[in-house]
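Notes continue from the previous slide.

Worked example: a multi-chain complex. Inputs as given:
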Amino acid sequence: GAVVSQHPSRVICKSGTSVKIECRSLDFQATTMFWYRQFPKQSLMLMATSNEGSKATYEQGVEKDKFLINHASLTLSTLTVTSAHPEDSSFYICSARRGGGQPQHFGDGTRLSIL
Amino acid sequence: GQQLNQSPQSMFIQEGEDVSMNCTSSSIFNTWLWYKQDPGEGPVLLIALYKAGELTSNGRLTAQFGITRKDSFLNISASIPSDVGIYFCAGIRTSYDKVIFGPGTSLSVIP
């Protein structure tokens, strides 16, 4: 199998709070993890690509100081939304893959709601 | 940049009917993937295709990697209510490229 666990599944918090989302590959080592954002009825929008032990590569228009990514091990990547505001409310999904050219396997997503 | 187009954008079918959807691109891809996403959940991989012309089945699902390497289709036979969801195609150009996702096809099954 290829199981990816994402936690928490839902977060509701006040504006200005920083929120950390974890993504774990449970039964395989992931050389690369990805973070996506998805708005209702839209496709997945890639935010950043994260390789273990190195800095994340952010897509154009994604603020690296706003969305901090840490990929400390082959099974764990974290996304921290710093000083979140209502416009950051969205569905955030991580994915992981074993190696280049391999399919990505997705977590179940985190619904972030900023009040 | 690279883009994938999916058609149809949405479809409503009767339970028991067969479904066909496709994905096209102006660029060549070396891997084609099909995912299904249920509301409020992450996408789940249905089928992965690695070779031009490859035809692969997973239960009632069948997908093909187009000969030109610029398209792929997914068929679902004898649809059931739990087939409802959004189906995304995705392509990988080379081993070191990120996955490119299509806009999705929304499937509704009428019991």
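Summary box: The CA atoms of residues 87 and 93 of chain B lie 20 Å apart. Chain B touches chain A through 24 residues (CB under 8 Å).
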